[in-house]
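Structural prep section.
Before we set up the soaks we want a predicted structure of the protein with thymidine-5'-diphosphate in place, mainly to decide which crystallisation condition to try first. Input record follows.
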Amino acid sequence: MVTGGAGFIGSHVVKLLAGKYPASKIVVFDALTYAGNLANLQELDGLDNYVFVKGDITDVDSVRRVLEEYGVDTILNLAAESHVDRSITDPLIFARTNVMGILTLLHAAREYWGDQLEGKLFYHISTDEVYGSLGFEDGPFTEQTPYSPRSPYSASKASSDHFVRAFGETYGMPIIISNCSNNYGPYQFPEKLIPLTVNNIRNGKPIPVYGKGENVRDWLYVGDHARAIDLIMNHGTPGETYNIGGDCEISNIEVVKTLIEITDRLLGRPEGASADLITFVKDRSGHDLRYAIDHSKLTRELGWRPATAFRDGIEHTVKWYLENSAWLKGVTSGEYLDYYTKMYASR
Ligand code: NAD
Ligand code: TYD
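Run finished without errors. Recording the tokens verbatim:
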């Protein structure tokens, strides 16, 4: 059961698993919020080993029904509210989904699995943002770094991580958590820095860069994250936490300049044509300065390392957004936007 499987990372994970494990049934359970989109999974339509169920992880009866109907033995939780800016505007839904939703999933899984825990796994996908913000001189986050979330989003993710660990300790549930750095790639909702920037360059709209653009993120291609999740699901040790990162620290302004260079070239525009779209805007409140991940545990124990160089991954990503304008239009159109998105957009 992959919750949040119609979202950005979830859809990459589901497509990887569906191709790799034809004998396993993959049940995607997703509420299809503004961030979930069945178009992300369209290529799986008709496959025997994939089924989609629309449902909300805060609704215990729906979760129970799916666990029983499909005899679920493994839960990969990727359902979440995932955007920091939305969490600043509207923190309550982050507690509802990211805290109560995960607690509801854990509770229903515990009820359903009882003491038959052999071959069961509750694998929770989390973020490096739970560790807080690094200074420029600090070493990267390790699995031992104390939690210090600073936004409503990261606080809600930290809370869910704590509940997952608590179920491991208190009830002996086989749990795993992985904390990953910023992902990029096709199918990311265009509210996040990279797809938003490409979309704005294409449309000649200002590119909002928060503060001075000096904040640093550790970028990982989404396919590398999906590969790590598959590996950890199959070979990770229950009770453990794994950090996943891209060895790829870049400041936001550098990311934006790279996107301008690639997008202008692919659109056949003169070099630097879109440079004047860069618009420095008021900084995000509580903006974390820097994230960087030490993934040496995952490399040492399971042999994973990022495989996609940023230059290749970003070129492929920009090309994908330019070639998939129908997808972009679909996810940003009035028809598609639900009540929540409209409410957000009107602020
Ligand atoms: P996303 O916002 O693209 O997708 C979230 C999915 O969850 C959507 O399909 C949405 O419909 C679904 N969902 C939301 N609320 C739900 C609910 N109540 N019940 C059922 N489904 C619900 O997010 P993403 O970027 O794919 O992130 C997936 C997970 O990975 C999140 O837990 C996020 O915290 C984590 N993560 C993301 C990144 C990143 O850079 N995007 C990095 C590290 C970790
Ligand atoms: P984002 O993609 O929202 O991911 P996160 O906040 O989880 O790291 O933002 C990445 C970085 O880009 C972050 O430092 C905030 C910055 N940013 C901008 O400068 N302008 C924007 O319009 C957005 C969405 C983000």
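Observations: Confidence is low (pLDDT under 50) at residues 343-347.
Flagged for discussion at group meeting.
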